[in-house]
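Ticket 4471: requesting a sanity check on a complex prediction with 2-acetamido-2-deoxy-beta-D-glucopyranose. Repro inputs:
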Amino acid sequence: MGRLCTSLAAATFICAFVLFMTPSEGRLFKVVTKDMTVCGLLDITFNVTFTAFRGSKRLRVATYDQDYYRNYISGDCNRDMAVHFENFAAWNLHVHFKLIPDPKYMLTRTVAFIPNLVFGKAVPSNTTEKFVNPVDTAIGPVDCSYKCGVEDKSFYKKVNSSSTDQIKAESGVITYSVLVDVSYIQFQVSHVHREKFGPPVICRPSFYYKLMK
Ligand SMILES: *[C@@H]1O[C@H](CO)[C@@H](O)[C@H](O)[C@H]1NC(C)=O
Ligand SMILES: *[C@@H]1O[C@H](CO)[C@@H](O)[C@H](O)[C@H]1NC(C)=O
Ligand SMILES: *[C@@H]1O[C@H](CO)[C@@H](O)[C@H](O)[C@H]1NC(C)=O
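Returned structure tokens:
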């Protein structure tokens, strides 16, 4: 297994070297199997901001980050991992293999939440809402880790949103926005050995050039 990782790690050596100097790492979550082995790791600093609107008026805002002691992680040791906040809100990572236009692993990020549980009485809906990061990210092979110290602030898009959502917004029915701000991440959903990340594949090599400017 090590070979592909190693060559990728070598290819990104310069970037990795630069990123060693970035100051902070996040909170480390471990996915543990029933027999107590660690099969997935996530080191993260982020927050998720939920906003409920009536028309264009902001009704309620709620923000969750990695630090709350009741947060926990779940994962299938294969392709999925999720950070669970209180009130059943969750940030989900899903890794999948894409053949076209060229073969690589991709990361899809989604958020699921129940409005009433996140916002309280002012927002009565208890139907699960699902939002997705509009852009999937290419990551390395599954026995490498993926690491990124470049801030990524993204508004997620409502899954299967339809034109009726626009009508709802205009007629005063409550709608939502989900903003996810990740300032540091290293993760590996499977193939974790001895509780350690595989060699990191670093995001956006262009970050190196940005630093040099
Ligand atoms: C989280 O939210 C606050 C604002 O509430 C912001 O200042 C901060 O930079 C955010 N991002 C991260 C990654 O913590
Ligand atoms: C969902 O919301 C309705 C209306 O607010 C409430 O009557 C019902 O008990 C809620 N169901 C659950 C499972 O929370
Ligand atoms: C979105 O739509 C697709 C295709 O119509 C369906 O398969 C999928 O389950 C839907 N997702 C959600 C979260 O409703």
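Notes from triage: The two ends are 37 Å apart (CA to CA). Leaving this open until the requester confirms.
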